[in-house]
Specification:
By secondary structure, this protein is an alpha+beta fold. The chain is built from five helices and six strands; from the N terminus they run E-E-H-E-E-H-E-H-H-H-E.
């Protein structure tokens, strides 16, 4: 699958293969995927359960390692192979470039909702502490749960946790938003 793009793509996948080894043998989750996504494009990935949708997103975000191929991301005007970066470089790139809404929320249970949202801003240094809290509260207002800002995730519903995960993904105003079934719990 290839999409039209008039500038350098933000994300490019070249012959990406992901094979999982299981007790029953090897399972080909991704078989030679080629994809380009440019600025301003919306791409939806559809398929039945087990088709490799989450695996594809994990390759793009650098959460999982690929078996072969390459995932290039546009970093400051040049293409960088995400799977050749070290762990710290990937974490910083992800924090500045991607907003990720995970299928299972991935909220830190010991942090309040507002702290879960300010954490990516603080790690990337995009805002000072007062600005990051104000931004987090505004994002919680936008997802209609600002009144729960100082609660821990365990004290809100699954749907509310998903809203916090969406707000957290938007915290650093990323150029790329990756969402794995973002409305599944809403």
């Amino acid at each position: 699958m290839k999409t039209k793009s008039y500038t350098q793509p933000l994300i490019e996948m070249r012959d990406v293969v992901k094979i999982y080894s299981t007790a029953a043998g090897e399972f080909d989750a991704l078989k030679g995927i080629n994809l380009q996504v440019g600025a301003g494009e919306f791409v939806g990935v559809v398929g039945k359960s087990g088709a490799g949708k989450s695996t594809l997103l994990n390759m793009i975000t650098g959460v999982d390692n690929l078996t072969s191929g390459e995932v290039l991301v546009n970093s400051n005007g040049s293409a960088v192979s995400i799977h050749k970066m070290n762990e710290d470089e990937v974490a910083l790139w992800r924090g500045k470039t991607l907003g990720v809404v995970f299928q299972s929320f991935q909220l830190l249970p010991m942090l309040t909702l507002v702290e879960n949202i300010t954490l990516p801003m603080d790690l990337c240094g995009n805002f000072n502490p007062r600005q990051s809290r104000e931004r987090a509260l505004e994002l919680l207002r936008l997802v209609e749960i600002e009144e729960h800002a100082d609660k821990l995730p365990a004290f809100i519903s699954g749907g509310q946790q998903q809203r916090v995960a969406i707000a957290r993904a938007l915290a650093n105003d990323p150029p790329v938003l990756i969402a794995d079934e973002p409305t599944g719990s809403l």
